[in-house]
Amino acid sequence: MNALLASNALIKVTPGLMIWTIVCFLIVLFVLKRYAFGPIQQVIDERRERIRRALEEADEARDEARKLLEEHRKLIGQARSEAEEILGEARQVGKAMQQRVKEETEADRERRLEETKRQIEAETRRALEAIRSEVAELSLVAAEKVARKSLDDKDQRRLIDEAIGELDFSVLERND
User: Fold this and answer.
1) Residue 84 DSSP SS3
2) Are 120 and 173 in contact (CB under 8 A)?
3) Within its chain, how far is the Cα of 161 from the centroid?
4) pLDDT number for residue 149
5) Residue 78 three-state SS
6) Which site in 37, 67, 118, 147 is 20 to 30 Å from 102, CA atoms measured?
7) How many other β-carbons are positioned within 10 Å of the β-carbon of residue 28?
8) Please, are residues 140 and 156 in contact by the beta-carbon 8 Å criterion?
9) Considering only CA atoms, which of 116, 166, 110 is closest in space to residue 136?
10) What does the alpha-carbon distance between residue 19 and residue 8 come to, in Å, rounded to a whole number?
């Protein structure tokens, strides 16, 4: 088996080849580090910095969004309380208007009722005066027929006053 291993040129240890391989490796490593790994690392660092800034901006945006949301909630709360206040005032104004209309209607009804009572009293007085006049006329006619003579003005007036004085109109006045 040693013979097989020794016969392969890639596995065979050759000191000159090994040194050149190490030298080539170090040169390639130096070139890669200088021209490839540096720019790659710089790109990675820049990207890491951009990601960090983006995260900070996202945090700031989230904080501002929270603040705006809180302000929005406060504004909504204020708007609701103002709406409730306006609604309460509107209800009070409505009740006050309703009460005022009710009072005005009641006052108008009372005024009309008083006016109607005055009209009824005035009509009652006119009717009583008319009845008194008729009674006086009838009394004169009856007195003339009884006396069969015509009375003078003085006697007529005296008879009328006596007839009216004897009549009781209080019964008619109490019925209104």
Assistant:
1) helix
2) no
3) 76
4) 61
5) helix
6) 118
7) 11
8) yes
9) 166
10) 19
113 is written with which tokens? 């009722």
**Residue 44 to residue 173: CA distance in whole angstroms:** 119
Q: What's the half-sphere exposure (Cβ side, CA atoms, 13 Å) at 8?
A: 6
The backbone torsions φ and ψ at residue 151, rounded to the nearest 5 degrees and listed phi first, read -90, 150
**Residue length of the chain:** 176
- Report which secondary-structure segment, H or E, holds 15: helix 15-31
8 Å CB contact between 164 and 134: no
Percentages helix, strand, coil for the chain, rounded to the nearest 5?
90, 0, 10
Q: Residues 56-77: pLDDT tens digits? A: 999 999 999 999 999 999 999 9
Q: pLDDT above 90 covers what percent of the chain?
A: 54
Structure-block tokens of residue 54: 């983006």
List Cα–Cα distances, 68 to 55, 62, 76, 153, 155, in angstroms: 19, 10, 12, 108, 109
Between 59 and 162, whose confidence is greater? 59
- Exposed (0-12), middle (13-18) or buried (19+): which is 66, by Cβ within 10 Å? exposed
